[in-house]
Amino acid sequence: MTELESTGNASDGRRAPDRDEREVVMHEIICPHCRKAFKIDEAGYSDILKQVRDHEFEREIHARLELAEQDKRNAVELAQSKIASAKDTEISELKAKLRTTESEQKLAVTEALSTVSKERDTLANELEQAKHDRHAALKLAEARLENELQKAVAAKDAQIQALTARLANIEVTQKLTITEAVGAVEKERDELKVSLKSAELEKQLAEKSLREKYETQIKDRDDAIERLRDMKARLSTKMVGETLEQHCATEFNRLRATAFPRAFFEKDNDARTGSKGDYIFRDSDEAGTEIVSVMFEMKNESDRTATKNRNEDFLKELDKDRIEKNCEYAVLVSLLEPDSELYNTGIVDVSHRYPKMYVVRPQFFIPIITLLRNAAMNSLKYKAELALVKAQNIDITNFESELESFKTAFGKNYELASRRFQMAIEEIDKSIDHLQKTKDALLGTDRNLRLANDKAQDVTIKKLTRGNPTMAGKFAELKDQRPPDAD
To answer: What is the pLDDT at residue 61?
Structure first.
């Protein structure tokens, strides 16, 4: 069933959404074709946004790659154009200088020939006999002129060769510069690729570690809360597969040989009066004199019971059984009203309703027997001392004072024990509250982690490189170097 169908069912009244479903954030999407509105949950909405972002990212990457490729071609063409233009300019200058040099040489030759011709004519007119010497001089002059012309041509050739070598060096230098620049860019691209892979791996490892950590903490917390709740309601009753009566009998029999060697603790099977309790406890001294007697009633009910009983409902019948069976005290051992703060504090004295009656949880079953027996033994000792005092004609006032001191001391001890039981229960409640707060904090942390993950998923290369043309160019080159099948 889809999220939309689930929402529709809930609105028709066929199934009320639970708490987790009510906390899901729903987004309304309108179809651009049919203009029909439908709702999707946050996960589906995030998936659609991711698809749209991936499409926009791919389109932006392709556009940037094309722009980068066009810029690269333009730069290469511009560099080649500049180099060709520089070469043409230098060649034109060299050709112009060469033409100028040739003109100068021709002019110099013409002037020299004119001068020689004039001198020859003059010499021919003046000195006919020196014709042979003049002819030799003319030959010498021509040889010298030819030598000078050869030197000038050699110098120009050397200059042209030097310029040609310089132009070749410039071309090599430019090619080397372009190669180094491309190598540096490729190296930075590879480093960025490695950094991105490393960051992605670290992110995945951190998410996995946090998820495992908080899952473990939440499980431990839930286990601890469950243990504390069970301890608060039942504590050490160990009632798996046995009744409350069997548990109390087992606990007493474990201590009978050491703590209660002369005690009587058996079920009350005498129903002649129409009712009976569960157990009767009687203890005697070495002379057989009864020290204390207690009528016990054990009450428990299943958590699945529709009608819950109260401890108050059994006090009257218990007092009646105590009187009929001639017991001094009455104790109700109860697991009823497990959430009552009154009965969870420890030993509860209800003698304001019925005389010498107490209500306890199962964990206080042995302590109440010990307290009542010790109090009775102390009272018996003081009674014996009173008889001795009376026999020795000692003032009864002193005995009464000591008896009152004992009662006060016993009351203080009982109050101290009760207060300590109350403190223990309060500490348990505080631990439960603290663990509940820890649970709420961990749940809040899980929600924050989910929001942080959504924000991380919303990060794109376009947002990261906005306003940063350098990084945009790097990622464009990285995209250009990616193999075609990676798309």
So the answer is: 75
Q: What are phi and psi of 326, to 5 degrees?
A: 60, 50
- What DSSP element (H or E) covers 329? strand 329-334
| 140 burial type by CB count under 10 A (0-12 exposed, 13-18 middle, 19+ buried) | exposed
Q: Is the pTM of this model over 0.85?
A: no
Single-letter amino acid, residue 223: D
State pLDDT tens for residues 156-177: 778 778 777 777 777 777 777 7
Cβ within 8 Å of residue 454, ≥6 positions away: 46
Taken in order 79, 82, 85, 87, the sign of the CA dihedral is negative
**Diameter of the chain by CA atoms?**
198
Rounded to whole angstroms, the Cα distance separating 8 from 32 reads 22
Whether the CB-CB separation of 296 and 331 falls below 8 Å is answered with yes
Cβ within 8 Å of residue 120, ≥6 positions away: 134, 138
> In whole angstroms, how far apart are CA 266 and each of 33, 152, 382, 481?
85, 144, 29, 91
* SS3 (DSSP) at 33: coil
Q: Are strands 357-360 and 329-334 parallel, antiparallel or unpaired?
A: parallel
Structure tokens at 202: 């670290």
d(CA 68, CA 29): 37
Q: Strand 279-284's sheet: what is its strand order?
A: 264-267, 279-284, 290-299, 329-334, 357-360, 348-349
Query: What does the pLDDT look like over 252-282, one tens digit per residue?
Result: 999 998 888 989 999 888 777 777 788 999 9
Residue type, 206: A
Q: Which residue has the tokens 């203009």?
A: 35
Report the 3 state secondary structure along 403-462: HHHHHHHHHHHHHHHHHHHHHHHHHHHHHHHHHHHHHHHHHHHHHHHHHHHHHHHHCCHH
Question: Are the beta carbons of 252 and 296 closer than 8 angstroms?
Answer: no
Please give the C-alpha separations between residue 28 and each of 65, 69, 116, 334, in angstroms, as whole numbers.
36, 42, 110, 56
Cβ-based neighbours of 373, under 8 Å, separated by 6 or more: 260, 283, 291, 292
When mean pLDDT is compared across 155-169, 232-246, 469-483, the lowest value belongs to 232-246
What token pair was written down for 260? 């209660």
DSSP conformational letter for 465: T
Residues 417, 411: Cα–Cα separation, whole Å:
10
Q: Are strands 264-267 and 290-299 parallel, antiparallel or unpaired?
A: unpaired
Helix axes 365-391, 396-458, angle to 10 degrees: 160
Cβ 336 vs Cβ 311: under 8 Å: yes
231/363 Cα distance (integer angstroms) = 10
Give Cα separations from 394 to 274, 389, 399, 402 (angstroms): 49, 5, 8, 13
